[in-house]
Amino acid sequence: MTAADDHHVVIVGAGFGGLEAARNLAGAPVRITMIDQRNHHLFQPLLYQVATASLPTSEIAWPIRFLLRGYKNVTTLLGAVTGVDRANKQVLLEGEGPIGFDTLILATGARHAYFGHDEWEPYAPGVKTLEDATRIRRRILSAFEQAEWETNPARRAEWLTFVIIGAGPTGVELAGTIAELAHDTLRGDFRNVDTRSARVILVEAGPRILAGFTEDLSSYAERALERLGVEVRLGQPVSDCRADGIMLGEEFLPARTTLWAAGVAASPAAEWLEAPSDRAGRVRVEPDLTAPGRPDIFVIGDTAFVAGTDGKPVPGVAPAAKQQGLYVAGLIKARLQGKPAPPPFAYRNAGNLATIGKRAAIVDFGWIKLRGRLAWWIWGIAHIFFLIGLRNRLAVALNWLWIYVSGHRSARLITQRDPGSGSASR
Amino acid sequence: MTAADDHHVVIVGAGFGGLEAARNLAGAPVRITMIDQRNHHLFQPLLYQVATASLPTSEIAWPIRFLLRGYKNVTTLLGAVTGVDRANKQVLLEGEGPIGFDTLILATGARHAYFGHDEWEPYAPGVKTLEDATRIRRRILSAFEQAEWETNPARRAEWLTFVIIGAGPTGVELAGTIAELAHDTLRGDFRNVDTRSARVILVEAGPRILAGFTEDLSSYAERALERLGVEVRLGQPVSDCRADGIMLGEEFLPARTTLWAAGVAASPAAEWLEAPSDRAGRVRVEPDLTAPGRPDIFVIGDTAFVAGTDGKPVPGVAPAAKQQGLYVAGLIKARLQGKPAPPPFAYRNAGNLATIGKRAAIVDFGWIKLRGRLAWWIWGIAHIFFLIGLRNRLAVALNWLWIYVSGHRSARLITQRDPGSGSASR
């Protein structure tokens, strides 16, 4: 055992960034401890498909310790980190003693955020965890069940109105899939309601949907959504969310199901470090992804704010987090070997993808832009490729093929009742 | 519209019996309303596989209204029945108005029961619903996570001890699968504990396991369990269940995870009808499965107590419930056509199956008894055959093949935290 073998790297968070760091450090002469408050890594880009009953939970999530079982220098612990004791170089945990580190990597991700309106959360839940997704799935499916009971036409229409706030990729994907669920999958399952009469309304404060894409791709996506029967409302900020609808400026829009896809905030890593942060709570890291003044603490993924080489902030997407995990692992290895530090982190944008329902998508690789059915196939193949593990790739591919061919969705289960939500969830 | 078209059959409960009744009445000149408090039909014989992380929830459950979508005279409603107004021939519902019936079929199933010790439930949960199964899955997986943290060897051993109370088919299946999970699937995933040291203890008050089978099959099953590393304790009734273990007579057995597979009680249909019932709360029905004195009210499945033609009670298994659903549908159709009533219900026992882990099973068809690997294949094929829907058959077959070949289990997700369960579930 050399001295380097005693170098202890603690990674908090087994998302895309943390997992990539662990894997790339696994061969190095270090001990690694991976701590996450959940037992599973989640493939977040497909989480909206769980929320809309297209995929079961187990096909987009894997036990972290299973993913890391082959790396003998990695210990995985299920635990909730509550802070960082920087003076003593320790991570603080809920209900367990502290864990010391030589190098710390914080990759704790983000939650959806309501920017000063946390009271909206019960009425407009967001989708960041498996629990969020099954809760939203229950809400959507229960709304149709309520409509089947309802005899008052106005109230029935409220149950059949679905509002999605925020027209980024998640909001667009949710709106498109809910429209397909109502207008196609559920058609014929009910006797008292025609699910095709359901309204799906996508609300966006900005002037266009998918603002991260070029204008022509975003206007194509808007038309594709409208073909699916989604109403797109642009330039209308939400001023209130309630159980029975939302306020768009002065207009009240009655709806029993509202989903939030408008914003996220970083986990409290900036507070733990008392480090400067941006409006979304992300730690403003150095160009080498270390926390200011702390070369032994890295912050990566959705928890970090760093400008790309083009001056624009690195986006909060899975490929960026993975590149950062890889970069940090390389930097730590270089240090241990006494080699010079690598150049600052540079984000390579491999392309932007978004999907609209099960037959259309937009793809922007920079050198080529695609839209329509071909783009959808590229989107599907790319996502299946990045899914971890052969079995899940196969299972997800089968599921999609099934939905594509038959229009049925297998994961239409109402489970996990909210104790407090009353009759709506039964 | 004829008068017969106005005959309204209300079915409460979409388990095996209720669903079979609905399907066989679908062609008759009746209106049918199916009411269930859940939106899904559950393939209960495989529920223990969800509890032990072998199958995801969505592969053994299907939306009821999807299963009945093709039967245009069937309306499916999601609702909780709270009673029966026999004088006015109405079913009473939680939060909705009553629903009148001409003929009522109660097929409301059973829950696990503690026979006067309801205080044991939090410490020894049973497995009857999807929520039960995911809760138990979380407990089992969390116990290994706790053991990984624990430094005190005695407490670590408690986290690695799993007790199953009751050695009927469910108890045997749970014990065998947990032993495989610990000794095979999870091996190598942990750094501080050797999961092969986990103890799985099957406790039975009676003199042998699987008392419904012949003595030689049950002793074979006992040896098969012991080969999997399960400790079988016979003739030892449980006298107490606590958070940290159970009392077997005067002996205290420390264990952090205890599961209940010892008994069930019928749903409160007997109370709704003020009808005579047996010890397990089942309605003592007439030979034609009607409630005493009420030819318009049928009770079937786990909710009914009826003697078979051999004098022995009809067992609470899926084939019996299906045969009863079919029988009742035929009887109602005969009545509507003015035909004579069919002979009393007679149960045909098509065979008894139980599985012990992933390579052994016992099968008793009466004319032939089988055990070992061949019996396991028969068990697997029979269960896949009875799964509803092509897609689920394929998905379950793929899952099992994957576990069989690789030993990995894909559904190892800790979700749905208990709000009150503290650190054990994290």
SSE blueprint:
The structure is a homodimer of 426-residue chains.
Chain A: E1 8-12, H1 16-25, E2 31-36, E3 40-42, H2 47-51, E4 61-63, H3 64-67, E5 74-78, E6 81-85, E7 90-93, E8 99-100, E9 103-106, E10 110-112, H4 130-149, H5 153-159, E11 161-165, H6 169-185, E12 199-203, H7 215-227, E13 230-233, E14 238-242, E15 245-248, E16 251-254, E17 257-260, E18 264-266, H8 269-273, E19 283-284, E20 290-291, E21 294-299, E22 304-305, H9 318-336, E23 352-356, E24 360-364, E25 369-372, H10 373-386, H11 390-406
Helix pairs in contact in A: 1-9, 4-5
What's this, in brief?
Chain A has helices spanning 16-25, 47-51, 64-67, 130-149, 153-159, 169-185, 215-227, 269-273, 318-336, 373-386, 390-406, and strands at 8-12, 31-36, 40-42, 61-63, 74-78, 81-85, 90-93, 99-100, 103-106, 110-112, 161-165, 199-203, 230-233, 238-242, 245-248, 251-254, 257-260, 264-266, 283-284, 290-291, 294-299, 304-305, 352-356, 360-364, 369-372. With 426 residues, the first copy, chain A, is an alpha/beta fold. Chains A and B meet through strand 4, strand 5, helix 4 and helix 11 of A and strand 4, strand 5, helix 4 and helix 11 of B.
Polypeptide structure, described:
The structure is a homodimer of 426-residue chains. By secondary structure, chain A is an alpha/beta fold. The first copy, chain A, has 2 domains: 4-37 and 79-113 and 264-336, FAD/NAD(P)-binding domain, CATH 3.50.50.60; 118-262 and 358-419, FAD/NAD(P)-binding domain (3-Layer(bba) Sandwich), CATH 3.50.50. Chain A is 31% helix and 23% strand. Chain A has 11 helices and 25 strands. In chain A, the strands form 8 sheets. In chain A, strands 5-2-1-9-21-20 form a 6-stranded mixed beta sheet, with helices on one face. In chain A, β15 and β16 form a beta hairpin. In chain A, α1 runs parallel beside α9 (318-336) and α4 packs antiparallel against α5 (153-159). The radius of gyration of chain A is 22 Å and the shape is globular. In chain A, 51% of the residues are buried. Chains A and B meet through β4, β5, α4 and α11 of A and β4, β5, α4 and α11 of B.
